[in-house]
Structure formats: structure tokens, C-alpha cells
Amino acid sequence: MKTNMLVPAIFVFAFVSLSSAPLAETSNKTVSVKTTDSFSFIRCHRQGKGIAVTWGFNSANVVSFAVQRTDQDPTDQYSVWECVCNQDANSSRSYKYHDINVYPGLMTYKVVALMNDGNTITSAMDQVRIVAH
Questions:
Q1: Quick one: average pLDDT of 41-45?
Q2: Total number of domains in the chain
Q3: In a domain, 13, yes or no
């Protein structure tokens, strides 16, 4: 009987002593973090008889952008992506392209950024369904 009472008593004592331990103090110092080169957003929507593609990019190290589209399955590695626009980067953080050569179907867009060190960064994909003109 004494051993049955001893185990719960040790557990309660250990729990109480751990929960009453002081918490580590937090610091209110500001830490400077280098922002990484990345897309902040990409959006596509129907505009007139075409599709407007807008995107934001967080870097001054970008040289140009290539807007690509496909009407095939975008998750298939063998899908054909057509480059519909090459656009030079400027001091803006957001960019826009109006694709007027669209046809009925599901159109998927992505943007590829060419960096000044030769690397590329690809955005997420966005889709627009064109029913008819």
C-alpha cells in the first residue's frame, strides 16, 4: 500500500516543482533579417477578352521576368509551357502583363524571375477558365 501511494506522490511533486520554475526572460531587441528573393504574390483574372497577370517580387537582384502559360496539366512534368512575355525588371515591386491571345479552356500561368547571378526563381501557379469570347 505504501508503494502505491509513493508513485503518485513523486509524480505530483515533480509536476509542481517543474511548473513553478521561472520562465526564461524574453528579449525585446530588434533583429535584422535579410529578406530572401521571392514572389510575394501572383494573380490572374479575366480582363476584357484577355487575362491580366499581376505579380509581386521582393528583391532588387532581379534582371527580368518571363510570363509562361499552359493549357495542359500544370503538374505534369511533360507539359509544354509557352513563354508569352519577357519583361525587364525595374524599381517597382509589382508588375503586370495583359495576355490578349487566349482561347477557351483552363489557362495556367507562372512567372520565372531571372536573377543577376544567373539563377531563376519560379512563382506559384494561378489559373483562369476561359468559357468563350
A1: 96
A2: 1
A3: no
Phi/psi class of residue 105: alpha, beta or left (left: φ > 0; alpha: ψ in -120 to 50)? Answer: left
The answer to whether residue 26 is domain-embedded is no
Do residues 33 and 86 make contact, with C-beta atoms less than 8 angstroms apart? no
Instruction: Give the model confidence (pLDDT) of 64-106 as tens digits.
Output: 999 999 999 999 999 999 999 999 999 888 999 999 999 899 9
pLDDT at residue 51 above 50? yes
Q: Which helix (H) or strand (E) holds 10?
A: helix 2-19
Q: For residue 68, give the nearest of 117, 115, 126 by alpha carbon.
A: 126
pTM given for the model: 0.71
- 100-129 b/e (C-beta count within 10 Å ≥ 16 → b): eebeeeebbbbbbbbeeeeeebebebbebe
The answer to whether position 89 is within a domain reads yes
Distance CA 82, CA 47 (A): 20
